[in-house]
Write a structure and sequence with these properties.
single chain; 402 residues; alpha+beta; Ubiquitin-like (UB roll); five-stranded antiparallel beta sheet; 23 strands
Length: 402
């Protein structure tokens, strides 16, 4: 393999010598001690000689003096490739720039990954790493893993251990969260109170003691399930509390609600003016931002953004992010409705609001009242439903019916 590589860089020239000059050419090689590989030419009885370009140059003066006819029929090797590419300077420069970019990109961070974070959002840890100088575009040689790990432990008491590993152009942060804090969070004393007024329909207790029963009338803030358990298991027992825990369960109640939806006969809305949109692109490469296109305009424009990560062959994510911002010229348009259109729209919006308010509960009744004047139409709704009204709170924040 090494011999082939050396031969490639040294190069090879193939010469064709006619039959009448073959003997003189062979004598010249012997007298000058030039190594060459000779073989017979099939067409004219001459010979073919293979040698390095340096030896051809060495005997070129003697060939001219002896008036020998020698023809170059092939040139191989590294320098011949360069000669063939001399008219394709763009391809040569492009190939050189490609290898330079590959080498430069290996000096920077391409990806940041976080492993083991449950309580702390991954995005928050990535942002914290960026503030500590570890992010996409950071120079790998400037990252102090020990210092970054200690800074994270000081900033986040919920972390008990961190490890920062650098593999190629990927930085991986592995964390372990404090188990003690998780247990304290799960075992803290709490209550479940009513989120609104209503009549209790069902009570399902997972842990704790029920403070109400079906048919009870409750106000917002009244205790529904108590996390304080007395010796007899009753909420109002005079016996001292033997155990505290976390209240959990499901309580549904029949509640009464009301809402109003107003729709004007005339309103001003924003619409596209038909003007040419302005586009600006932000290219982030290794954390450095480059801007192309229009500047942010002043005036009445709607704005939309989209961003995407550039990938290589659809699989390799590059440290290049493109964010495109489009500003579309807007104009104010006065929109007018008839009374019937305003009433239909107000009723439709009111029905949607009722459905959203009931959610997975059950609607028991609904009354719609329509009122109209010269400015628009209003729909007032009074409705009843059976929904869950549980609201977990800590004991210190609860206001109950005790």
């Amino acid at each position: 393999m090494i011999n082939k590589l050396v031969s490639f860089f040294r190069g090879k020239v193939t010469l064709r010598i006619p039959r009448e000059d073959a003997a003189a050419f062979t004598d010249l090689l012997l007298s000058a001690k030039i190594p060459a590989k000779l073989r017979s030419a099939e067409d004219d009885g001459g010979i073919l000689a293979e040698m390095s370009p340096g030896f051809v140059k060495k005997i070129s003066y003697s060939l001219d003096n002896l008036h020998l006819k020698v023809y170059i029929i092939d040139v191989e090797g590294f320098f011949s490739v360069l000669m063939r590419m001399r008219y394709r300077i763009g391809a040569v420069i492009g190939a050189a720039l490609f290898f330079v970019l590959i080498w430069l990109s290996s000096l920077y961070v391409w990806r940041v990954e976080v492993i083991g974070a449950d309580k702390i959002p991954r995005e928050e840890l990535v942002s914290a790493l960026s503030q500590l100088g570890v992010g996409e575009g950071s120079r790998i040689s400037e990252i102090d893993a020990f210092k970054v790990g200690n800074s994270l432990l000081m900033a986040y008491p919920a972390l008990s251990w961190t490890s920062l590993d650098i593999t190629g152009t990927t930085v991986t942060l592995t964390v372990r969260e404090t188990v003690k804090e998780q247990l304290e969070e799960e075992n803290r004393t709490s209550l479940i109170v009513a989120s609104e007024d209503g009549i209790i329909q069902s009570v399902l207790v997972y842990s704790g003691v029920a403070a109400v029963k079906p048919g009870s009338v409750v106000k917002a803030g009244d205790v529904l399930i108590n996390g304080l358990i007395s010796g007899s298991g009753l909420q109002y027992s005079p016996e001292p509390i033997l155990r505290v825990g976390m209240a959990s369960g499901s309580v549904t109640a029949s509640v009464e609600r009301s809402l109003a939806v107003a729709v004007p006969l005339e309103e001003t809305v924003q619409a596209d003016s038909g003007g040419k949109p302005l586009v600006r692109r932000e290219l982030t490469v290794f954390g450095r931002k480059l801007y192309f296109g229009d500047r942010p305009p002043e005036g009445n424009f709607s704005c939309s953004e989209r961003s995407y990560r550039v990938t290589l062959f659809g699989a390799v994510r590059l440290p290049v992010t493109v964010r495109e911002t489009v500003w579309t010229p807007q104009t104010e348009v006065v929109f007018r409705r008839t009374g019937a259109e305003a009433e239909a729209l107000a009723r439709q919006l009111a029905e949607e609001s009722v459905r959203d308010g009931v959610g997975s509960g059950k609607l028991t009744h609904a009354e719609y009242r329509v009122s109209a004047d010269g400015s628009g139409c209003t729909v007032n709704v009074s409705y009843g439903c059976i929904v869950e009204i549980t609201l977990p709170v800590s004991i210190g924040n609860a206001s109950g019916n005790e």
